[in-house]
């Protein structure tokens, strides 16, 4: 039997967590486990209204852990993330799936985390005052603890950020892979390139090969081809019920080329 415990703050909830408990946010995955009879003995939930708030300070935007994909789509401040949130499931899922939940969702879910890593988002943990890179959470999700908020900086140039979800069923099928790219430019040349793949490893991962091919160059046919050729360097795509690792490796560069070409033509 599973019981639900309710706390006022994330800090209280963090102290209550244990090996027999899971955090209940939007519930898209946890409630499935409940229905299947595989949920842990205790579910922890928090009523702090700050978890569902979106606060902007200049270009820096703080997103509460409990903000849903539907909330993202309703926010003007997060319009640059609308193309990502729009591709997360159908309306029912978007009404439940949360920003923080996406950081812990295993493939084929969690595409939103791919975009957050490309944007170099920062996260604030329960009871913590300082933020840490989202990359740290994705590298060791089992030890990440509870997340209170995610902070992201709005791209200064909307053309610098792009997202692509590759699925077999349109528009809301689960992803074969996803790609997010943040390519700020100075004087027409890319500076601090970030290219991230979802479903090419146990969590979203940066493509060092693609970033190296793009850094310091303009987005043109040559740099796009070089990035596509180097897209899977160092990545070990998994084989699962959706696609084989071989297939993902074969098509990753093709779809990266597609995304970069779209970004070039904006």
Describe the protein's architecture and organization:
- Helices cover 32% and strands 23% of the residues.
- It is α+β, with helices and mostly antiparallel strands and 266 residues long.
- The strands form four sheets. The protein has a five-stranded antiparallel beta sheet.
- Helix 2 (30-36) links the parallel strand 2 and strand 3.
- It starts with a strand and ends with a helix.
Write a brief caption for the model.
With 266 residues, the chain is an alpha+beta fold. It has eleven helices and 14 strands.
Give the spatial strand order of the biggest sheet.
Answer: 4-5-8-6-7
> How far apart are the termini?
54 Å
Number of helices: 11
Q: Which oligomeric form is depicted?
A: single chain
- Helices and strands, in order, run as EHEHEEEHHHHHEEHEEEEEEEHHH
Rg value: 19 Å
Major β-sheet profile: 5 strands, antiparallel
Strand content: 15-25%
Low-pLDDT stretches are none
Helix content: 25-40%
- Number of E-type strands: 14
Spatial shape: globular
Instruction: Calculate the mean pLDDT score and round it.
Output: 94
Structural class: alpha+beta
Keywords for this structure?
266 residues; 14 strands; 11 helices; alpha+beta; four-stranded antiparallel beta sheet; 23% strand; five-stranded antiparallel beta sheet
What topology does this entry show?
Layout: E1 3-7, H1 10-16, E2 21-23, H2 30-36, E3 42-46, E4 54-57, E5 60-64, H3 69-74, H4 82-85, H5 91-94, H6 99-104, H7 111-118, E6 122-125, E7 132-133, H8 134-139, E8 147-153, E9 161-167, E10 175-182, E11 185-186, E12 189-190, E13 194-198, E14 205-206, H9 208-214, H10 221-229, H11 245-264
Parallel strand pairs: 1-3, 2-3
Antiparallel strand pairs: 4-5, 5-8, 6-7, 6-8, 9-10, 10-13, 11-12, 13-14
Helix pairs in contact: 9-10, 10-11
């Amino acid at each position: 039997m599973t019981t639900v415990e309710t706390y006022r703050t994330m800090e209280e909830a963090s102290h209550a967590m244990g090996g027999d408990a899971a955090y209940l946010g939007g519930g898209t995955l946890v409630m499935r486990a409940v229905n299947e009879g595989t949920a842990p003995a205790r579910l922890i939930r928090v009523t702090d209204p700050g978890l569902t708030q979106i606060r902007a300070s200049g270009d820096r935007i703080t997103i509460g852990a409990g903000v849903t994909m539907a909330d993202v789509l309703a926010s003007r401040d997060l319009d640059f993330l609308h193309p990502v949130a729009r591709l997360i499931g159908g309306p029912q899922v978007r009404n439940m799936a949360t920003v923080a939940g996406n950081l812990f969702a295993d493939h084929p879910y969690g595409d939103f985390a791919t975009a957050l890593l490309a944007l170099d988002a920062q996260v604030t943990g329960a009871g913590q005052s300082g933020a840490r890179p989202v990359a740290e959470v994705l590298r060791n999700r089992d030890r990440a603890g509870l997340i209170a908020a995610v902070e992201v900086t709005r791209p200064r140039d909307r053309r610098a950020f792009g997202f692509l979800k590759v699925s077999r069923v349109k528009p809301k099928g689960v992803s074969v892979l996803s790609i997010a790219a943040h390519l700020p430019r100075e004087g027409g040349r890319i500076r601090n390139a970030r290219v991230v793949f979802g479903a090419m490893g146990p969590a979203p991962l940066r493509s060092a090969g693609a970033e190296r091919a793009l850094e310091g160059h303009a987005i043109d046919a040559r740099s796009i081809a070089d990035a596509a050729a180097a897209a899977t360097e160092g990545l070990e795509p998994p084989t699962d019920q959706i696609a084989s690792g071989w297939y993902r490796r074969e098509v990753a560069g093709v779809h990266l080329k597609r995304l970069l070409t779209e970004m070039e033509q904006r």
